[in-house]
Design brief:
With about 350 residues, this protein is of the alpha+beta class.
């Protein structure tokens, strides 16, 4: 009798164990699905399968962002639980800053995408209550969610950055959208090196060239062409020169540091590299002696910095076009995105 009861109890326990194991297995499956798609409690997110986000996919996230921005409604976006957002290097809550003042978006539309890092970039024009501003934007997408948004806005003000923003001049440049032939493309590491060499050339500029320029290289800053521009209306012949010729004069000696450099987006197909960072001017150099012996006045008399998002078009290993948006920030301002020992690609 005792033996029979014992066998029955063991059988009962086995049955309960099998049932518990089955329930636990089902729970693991449910939790696995929830982890891959996101819990319902996470902010502003809908289930998105884990897939590779190609160029069209990344541009789709950009379109969603711009649409939500114009509508001033960040709840429309698939945001991660802790999406990071900055405007002119100040980290804030997404939905603040430009989200409060935007009235519309202009026609200028330069896009670039990095499918290996999940970053998508955009240069355009935004209207803030009747005032146009040049804008550069970077969005990072991971597992179907927006995790980072970085913006630099150059607003038109009386005593603003040089050159004072002229977003109305921004027109599409076909060279920026051109897909480069496979046999003339450069690998990611080389593209990054060429762009970084531009910053080395600009930093403490003494006429030494640390990169390679195409003979037809041009540069636009906040919508204003600052190379090969004979009608600039600004004193000094340097603006009438090409990219390399300008640097060979040593005209930018007052650029003390190209600091907190980052290269978060490399569009290999188009040969585009988006860089972030700061140009610091200490104000210590009041006069600049050019390589031809001429002496000019420095533009910067007091400590001063620019924050920038700058994109380089590289054709066959040479810089062909530069598109920059930058604005004034306090001298030596820290970056929320730069970490001294981090991977800044």
């Amino acid at each position: 009798m005792t033996l029979l009861v014992s066998r029955r109890m063991r059988g009962d326990m086995r049955g309960r164990f099998r049932m518990t194991a089955a329930v636990m297995g089902a729970l693991v499956v449910v939790l696995g699905i929830a982890a891959s798609q996101g819990f319902a409690g996470e902010r502003n997110m809908t289930p998105v399968p884990r897939t590779v986000c190609d160029r069209a996919c990344l541009y789709g996230y950009l379109d969603k962002y711009l649409d939500a921005l114009v509508k001033k409604d960040s709840s429309r976006l698939p945001l991660a639980q802790h999406t990071r957002f900055s405007e002119n290097s100040v980290e804030m809550q997404i939905g603040d800053g430009l989200w409060n003042t935007i009235s519309g978006i202009g026609k200028y539309d330069l896009r670039l995408a990095d499918t290996k890092t999940g970053n998508v970039g955009w240069y355009g024009v935004v209207d803030e209550n009747g005032n146009d501003a040049a804008i550069a934007l970077r969005i990072k997408v991971q597992e179907g969610l927006i995790t980072e948004v970085e913006t630099v806005l150059a607003r038109q003000v009386v005593d603003g950055p040089f050159p004072n923003p002229q977003p109305q001049r921004l027109k599409t440049l076909p060279i920026m959208n051109r897909i480069e032939p496979v046999d003339t493309r450069r690998p990611r590491a080389r593209l990054l090196s060429i762009a970084d060499g531009y910053f080395d050339t600009l930093q403490l500029n003494d006429g030494t060239i640390f990169t390679q320029f195409d003979k037809d290289c041009n540069r636009r800053e906040n919508g204003f062409q600052t190379t090969n521009n004979k009608d600039a209306g600004i004193p000094g012949a340097v603006l009438s020169l090409g990219c390399e010729a300008q640097f060979k004069t040593g005209n930018f000696r007052f650029d003390d540091r190209l600091r907190a450099r980052r290269f978060p987006l490399i569009d290999e197909e188009r040969g585009l590299v988006m860089a972030g960072g700061f140009i610091d001017h200490s104000g210590r150099l009041q006069k600049v002696t050019l390589t031809d012996g001429r002496v000019i006045e420095s533009l910067f008399k007091t400590p001063h910095s620019y924050v920038l998002l700058e994109t380089f078009k590289i054709v066959d290993g040479k810089i062909r076009q530069v598109e920059a948006v930058f604005t004034d920030v306090p001298y030596n301002m820290p970056s929320p995105w730069f970490h001294p020992h981090g991977n800044h690609q």
